[in-house]
From TrEMBL:
PANTHER family: METALLOPHOSPHOESTERASE DOMAIN-CONTAINING PROTEIN, PHOSPHATASE DCR2-RELATED-RELATED
Domain Calcineurin-like phosphoesterase span(s) in chain numbering: 42-310
SUPFAM superfamilies: Metallo-dependent phosphatases
Lineage, uppermost ranks: Eukaryota, Fungi, Dikarya, Ascomycota, Pezizomycotina
Signal peptide start and end residues: 1-23
Keyword field: Signal
InterPro entries: Calcineurin-like_PHP (IPR004843), Metallo-depent_PP-like (IPR029052)
Top-level lineage group: Eukaryota
Name this polypeptide is given: Calcineurin-like phosphoesterase domain-containing protein
Cellular component terms (Gene Ontology): cytoplasm
Entry GO MF terms: hydrolase activity, acting on ester bonds
Length: 404
């Protein structure tokens, strides 16, 4: 990939935000991906893998081995261009610091075997007093494929302590299928934090569970700079572990139906900005994710993908006023992933969200998405376009997605 004016701008930007990429190497190895020759980009999203839980945590034997099976089955069915690990890779409250890297090695093994690019966000279970998301990110940054090429984009682009700004805040450029130097879209990754401050010899101190205002400012400024450089708005997707409050408002106010927004709806949404008591039994929403929601609206991302809630996997179009949220979502699509890991609560069949974007449909803000289950079946296949939310789809048969 040659060093165009835009790419040279990215070099300066990466250097300015403190990435570990050395400027002299960026012109050849700047972390980005490209639409395939057929004009498509296929992304598999694994969420809530929860590696490292002892058997007594959920009463399941060989949970990590079974989760690797899920990943292999999904990847063999989908053959994606890229994989996103969207939070709660590890149940770090059960993990000693010296054991974390070996768990990461297990998680990425199916991806390394296939030489798949990897981007991760961190979730509330990835941060504990025995696990540092910063150290996790630095270890993941070194991952290479069997072909010797660098695979991982996971990094920290916003200065500050991880308990203040998080770790997995960065973007990945996506270049045109016909021109490897032409920016076609952006993939944004955010750390919604939560969990505990890393201090192995200390006590448990909770961390706020929303995207920090400093990250929001970075998001706005970086997007403005990129837009100014290319001369137009850039289509984009966003990935963040804990969903924004608009999803709970939609659910509580009767916006979701089984035919317009097919998928599992088996629990109440747990959203960013909840402040809970010491037992986690009583939580109140404090509105702290409002700046992040407003930024998503103003920038106009095509869709936002979240995990965290294991019994939910529908998508919604935020196109009207919702209680306690910014005035209007302007048609942003908000989607939940399928719980992928055998660690963590619930016993619905595991799987992953699949996203397919066609380059020639970027101007229409349109994409296809579905859940690929561990047994190979597809659930909740929808088209996120201007009429999503009004279109009717077959309801998901929950009886076929339960693991006894």
């Amino acid at each position: 990939m040659k060093c165009t004016e835009f790419l040279c701008f990215l070099i300066c930007l990466v250097d300015a935000i403190g990435s570990r990429v050395e400027a002299k190497n960026v012109a050849v190895n700047y972390p980005g991906i490209q639409f395939s020759k057929d004009g498509k980009l296929s992304i598999t999203v694994f969420s809530d893998l929860h590696f490292g839980e002892p058997e007594q945590a959920q009463g399941r034997r060989d949970a990590d081995i079974k989760t690797i099976g899920v990943m292999n089955n999904v990847l063999d069915s989908e053959h994606p261009n890229m994989v996103v690990l969207n939070g709660d890779l590890v149940s770090c409250e059960w993990v000693a610091p010296e054991n974390l890297n070996s768990l990461i090695d297990q998680i990425v093994a199916p991806l390394i075997e296939r030489n798949l690019p990897i981007a991760a966000t961190f979730g509330n279970h990835d941060a504990s007093k025995t696990c540092s998301t910063r150290l996790m990110s630095e270890y993941m940054w070194t991952i290479k494929g069997t072909n010797g090429k660098k695979l991982s984009f996971t990094t920290s682009s916003v200065p500050g302590e991880p308990d203040q700004v998080g770790t997995s805040n960065y973007f990945v450029p996506v270049y045109s299928s016909s021109d490897g130097s032409k920016l076609a879209m952006l993939l944004w990754f955010f750390d919604s934090r939560g969990g505990r401050i890393y201090q192995p010899s200390g006590i448990d101190i909770p961390v706020d569970d929303w995207v920090d205002d400093a990250v929001v400012a970075w998001f706005r400024q970086t997007n403005d700079q990129l837009r100014e450089q290319v001369g137009h708005d850039i289509p984009s997707l966003a990935f963040v572990h804990i969903p924004v409050h608009a999803t709970l408002s939609f659910q509580q106010n009767g916006g979701r139906t089984g035919t317009n927004e097919p998928g599992l709806n088996e629990e109440e949404v747990g959203n960013q900005g909840d402040v809970c008591d010491s037992n986690g039994d009583h939580c109140n929403y404090n509105g702290a994710d409002t700046p992040f929601m407003k930024a998503l609206i103003d920038i106009g991302v095509m869709a936002v993908f979240s995990g965290h809630d294991h019994g939910i996997d529908w998508c919604m179009k935020w196109s009207k006023n919702l209680a306690n949220d910014p005035a209007n979502g302007n048609g942003i699509n908000l989607c939940f992933n399928r719980h992928s890991g055998y660690g963590g609560y619930t016993d619905w069949k595991r799987g992953a969200r699949q996203i397919v974007i066609e380059e020639d449909k970027l101007g229409k803000n349109e994409l296809e998405t579905w859940i690929r289950l561990e047994d190979g079946r597809i659930s909740g296949h929808v088209t996120l376009n201007s009429t999503y939310g009004a279109d009717h789809y077959p309801s998901v048969d929950k009886s076929k997605t339960f693991v006894s």
